[in-house]
Design a protein that fits this description.
The protein is mainly alpha-helical. The chain has a single domain, classed as Four Helix Bundle (Hemerythrin (Met), subunit A) (Up-down Bundle). Helix content is 66%, strand content 4%. It has 6 helices and 2 strands. The protein has a two-stranded antiparallel ribbon. Helix 2 packs antiparallel against helix 5 and helix 3 runs antiparallel to helix 4. The longest helix is centred in the last third of the chain and has 28 residues. The termini are far apart. This is Protein-S-isoprenylcysteine O-methyltransferase. It is found in: Membrane. It is an enzyme of class 2 (transferase). Keywords: Membrane, Methyltransferase, Transferase, Transmembrane, Transmembrane helix.
Length: 195
């Protein structure tokens, strides 16, 4: 099989896997009452940036010739490494949803029965779901041999992260106060022991 075709299939399988992981959690949390929702329009813009980089641009690469001029030579090693990183991102994504349960939301929201989760993967980092998205973006950069579509995920999700993380942490401080301060003091944001 052609390496480019394999990369397209693996990327598509990863995106489908991502959606299948999230779907049951989306259905469950719709029944939860939201007591604090912040920055709705801003959130929509940031989610659009992330979707553009992690979904739309690579989909255009995979299904059209729009970005073919930016393809570069590709190796089986890149295919294997990109596949492994994507698999790791899917595993972490699943764990974050399982650990969060009904506390999960796509945007900045606090639910009526919201609890601060500090167990499972949240024992090591405060925002492992963002870690999972960055792993997806890194997998895309390695897996897709294209100077536009490959790094588009890092740029798109990077914009969301840069403009959301401060507001999310402020919301958690407003909601959980000293409990969140203590949790923040003993955990990293994204990478255990580093950041």
């Amino acid at each position: 099989m052609n390496l480019l075709v394999a990369a397209k299939i693996i990327w598509a399988a990863g995106v489908i896997g991502w959606y299948l992981i999230r779907l049951p959690f989306e259905r469950r949390v719709k029944r939860e009452r939201v007591v604090d929702a912040r920055h709705r329009v801003r959130e929509l813009v940031l989610l659009s940036c992330s979707t553009l980089g992690l979904g739309i641009i690579p989909l255009l690469w995979a299904t059209s010739k729009l970005f073919n001029a930016y393809n570069y030579p590709y190796s089986p090693f890149q295919l294997a490494l990109g596949t492994l990183i994507f698999a790791a991102s899917l595993w972490l994504f699943r764990r974050t949803h399982k650990d969060l349960g009904r506390n999960w939301s796509v945007t900045l929201e606090i639910k009526d029965t919201h609890k601060l989760i500090t167990e499972g993967v949240y024992r090591y980092v405060r925002h492992p779901m963002y870690s999972a998205f960055f792993l997806w973006a890194l997998a895309q950069a390695v897996l897709i041999p294209n100077l536009v579509a490959g790094p588009a995920g890092l740029i798109g999700f990077g914009i969301l992260y840069a403009f959301r993380i401060g507001r999310e942490e402020a919301m958690m401080l407003d909601t959980f106060g000293d409990q969140y301060r203590a949790y923040s003091a003993r955990t990293a944001r994204l990478v255990p022991g580093l950041y």
